[in-house]
C-alpha cells in the first residue's frame, strides 16, 4: 500500500514538471530575439549589440511625406528651456601687478605760436590749433605744459632780453633756469572747407573740411630740431551741419590731424633726459624747481651735478649735446609745496649752486 502511494506521488511530480517546462519554453530568453516563422531578415551589415545577439539588417527607407500642417488655432508646442553649463570663473593672474602709472617724472614742454599759412588769414587758426594741441597734451597727464606768456615773464624777471622765445639763446636759458626740456611750435598749412545747403527748401548748411598740421619738436638744451610731425585729416573730410557748421568741420578736421601726431610726439620726447634746477639754497635745504606737478614724491632721491660742457660740431656748428659734469651729491625730497616745487634735504655732498643740474636717480 505504501509503495503505491509513493508511486502515485512520483507520477504527479513528473506530470507537473513536464507541464512547467512546456509552458516556460514559449517565453523568449533574455538577450535573444525571437524570430518569427516565415519572415527573413533583410540583407545588410552585421551588427553586434552588447547584451543582444548578432543580427543583419538595414534601415528601411523613409517615406518622403511632408510634415502635417499646423492649423491656425493649434497652439505651438512648448519648448523645454535650454540648459546651459555655467562657464568656470577666470583664474586670477598669478604674476605681480604692474604699477598704475610708470612713466617717471614729467617733462616740461612750452607750446609756442603756430603759423597760419592757409587761405583763411582773417581767422585765428594758428592760435586755435596751438590751444587744442596744448589741451590734448595736458589731458594725457604725461607732460607739464608751460604757457608761453608765463615763460616770457619769468625770463624777463631774470633780466633776459629777447624778441621771440624761438631764439636759440633764449631756449637754452629757459632750459637752464626753468627746467624746460622741449619747445613745440607748428604751422597750419592747409584747411579746405566746402559748404552747401542740405536741400533746396532748407536754409540749413552742411560743411566738409580737411586739414594739414605740421608740428616741430625742439630740444631746449641745444635748440636742435628733433623731428617734424605731420598730421592730416581723412581724405574724405569731416561733415558737420547746422549753425557754425564751417567752424565745427574745420576744428574736427584739425583734431584728426593732431591725434595722428600725439603718439610719435611722446615717443620722441622720451629721448630727452629729465632734468631740473635748484632755485634757492638755505643750509641743508635745497629748493627744487619741480614738485607735485612734475611727478616728484616725498622720499624721492635726486642726484646733483655741476654743469657739463656743450659740444659743438666743428664743421656743422650744430650742438651735439651736453656732457655730464662731476657729481656733487644726493638730495632726498622731504616736502612738496606750491604748484610745482619741492624741498630736498642733503644726503651727501655739498658746495651746491643754483646753476647745478638736478637729475633723477632712476634710469
Structural write-up:
Residues 23-39, 44-61 and 80-102 have low confidence and may be disordered. β6 and β7 form a beta hairpin. 23% of the residues lie in helices and 31% in strands. It is flat. Among the domains are: 107-269, Rossmann fold (3-Layer(aba) Sandwich); 275-360, FlgT, C-terminal domain (Thrombin, subunit H). The strands form four sheets. Strands 3, 4, 5, 6, 7 and 8 form a six-stranded mixed β-sheet that branches. A six-stranded antiparallel beta barrel has the order 9-10-15-14-11-16. It has a two-stranded antiparallel sheet with strand order 1-2. It has 363 residues and is α+β, with helices and mostly antiparallel strands. The longest helix is centred in the C-terminal third of the chain and has 25 residues, at 245-269. The chain has five helices and 16 strands.
Please describe the topology of this protein.
Layout: H1 2-24, E1 45-48, E2 54-57, E3 107-116, H2 125-139, E4 143-147, H3 148-157, H4 168-178, E5 182-197, E6 205-219, E7 225-232, E8 238-241, H5 245-269, E9 275-282, E10 285-288, E11 301-305, E12 310-312, E13 319-322, E14 327-337, E15 341-349, E16 357-360
Parallel strand pairs: 3-4, 3-5
Antiparallel strand pairs: 1-2, 5-6, 6-7, 6-8, 9-10, 9-16, 10-15, 11-14, 11-16, 12-13, 14-15
Helix pairs in contact: 2-5
Specify Rg, calculated over alpha carbons.
45 Å
Number of strands: 16
Mean pLDDT, all residues: 77
Q: Please give the share of residues in helix.
A: 10-25%
Task: Determine the number of helices (DSSP H or I, runs of at least 4 residues).
Answer: 5
Strand % is: 25-35%
How would you sum up the global shape? flat
Name the CATH architecture of the domain at 107-269: 3-Layer(aba) Sandwich
Task: Tell me the major beta sheet.
Answer: 6 strands, mixed
The sequence of SSEs as H and E is: HEEEHEHHEEEEHEEEEEEEE
Outline the low-pLDDT stretches. 23-39, 44-61, 80-102
The computed structural class is alpha+beta
**First and last CA, distance:** 126 Å
Question: Could you state the CATH homologous superfamily of the domain at 107-269?
Answer: ABC-type transport auxiliary lipoprotein component
Briefly note the CATH topology name of the domain at 107-269: Rossmann fold
Q: Indicate the CATH class of the domain at 107-269.
A: Alpha Beta
Amino acid at each position: 500500500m505504501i509503495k503505491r502511494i509513493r508511486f502515485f506521488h512520483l507520477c504527479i511530480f513528473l506530470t507537473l514538471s513536464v507541464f512547467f517546462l512546456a509552458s516556460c519554453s514559449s517565453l523568449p530568453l533574455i538577450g535573444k530575439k525571437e524570430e518569427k516563422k516565415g519572415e527573413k531578415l533583410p540583407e545588410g551589415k552585421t551588427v553586434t549589440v552588447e547584451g543582444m545577439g548578432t543580427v543583419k539588417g538595414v534601415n528601411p527607407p523613409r517615406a518622403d511625406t511632408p510634415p502635417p500642417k499646423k492649423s491656425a488655432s493649434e497652439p505651438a508646442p512648448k519648448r523645454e528651456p535650454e540648459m546651459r553649463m555655467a562657464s568656470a570663473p577666470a583664474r586670477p593672474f598669478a604674476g605681480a601687478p604692474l604699477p598704475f602709472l610708470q612713466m617717471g617724472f614729467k617733462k616740461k614742454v612750452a607750446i609756442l605760436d603756430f603759423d597760419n599759412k592757409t587761405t583763411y588769414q582773417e581767422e585765428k587758426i594758428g592760435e586755435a590749433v596751438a590751444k587744442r594741441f596744448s589741451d590734448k597734451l595736458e589731458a594725457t597727464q604725461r607732460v607739464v605744459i608751460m604757457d608761453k606768456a608765463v615763460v616770457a615773464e619769468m625770463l624777463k624777471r631774470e633780466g633776459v632780453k629777447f624778441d621771440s622765445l624761438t631764439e636759440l639763446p633764449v631756449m637754452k636759458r629757459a632750459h637752464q633756469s626753468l627746467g624746460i626740456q622741449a619747445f613745440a611750435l607748428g604751422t597750419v598749412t592747409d584747411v579746405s572747407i566746402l559748404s552747401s545747403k542740405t536741400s533746396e527748401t532748407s536754409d540749413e548748411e552742411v560743411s566738409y573740411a580737411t586739414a594739414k598740421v605740421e608740428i616741430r619738436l625742439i630740444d631746449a638744451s641745444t635748440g636742435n630740431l628733433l623731428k617734424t610731425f605731420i598730421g592730416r585729416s581723412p581724405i574724405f573730410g569731416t561733415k558737420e551741419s547746422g549753425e557754425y557748421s564751417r567752424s565745427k568741420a574745420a576744428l574736427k578736421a584739425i583734431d584728426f590731424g593732431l591725434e595722428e601726431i600725439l603718439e610719435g610726439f611722446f615717443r620722441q620726447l622720451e629721448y630727452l633726459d629729465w632734468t631740473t634746477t635748484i632755485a634757492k639754497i638755505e643750509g641743508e635745504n635745497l629748493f627744487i624747481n619741480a614738485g607735485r606737478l612734475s611727478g616728484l614724491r616725498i622720499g624721492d632721491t635726486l642726484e646733483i651735478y655741476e654743469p657739463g660742457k656743450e659740444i659743438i660740431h666743428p664743421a656743422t656748428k650744430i650742438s651735439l649735446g651736453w656732457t655730464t659734469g662731476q657729481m656733487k651729491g644726493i638730495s632726498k625730497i622731504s616736502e612738496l609745496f606750491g604748484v610745482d616745487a619741492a624741498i630736498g634735504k642733503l644726503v651727501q655732498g655739498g658746495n651746491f649752486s643754483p646753476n647745478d643740474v638736478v637729475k633723477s636717480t632712476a634710469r
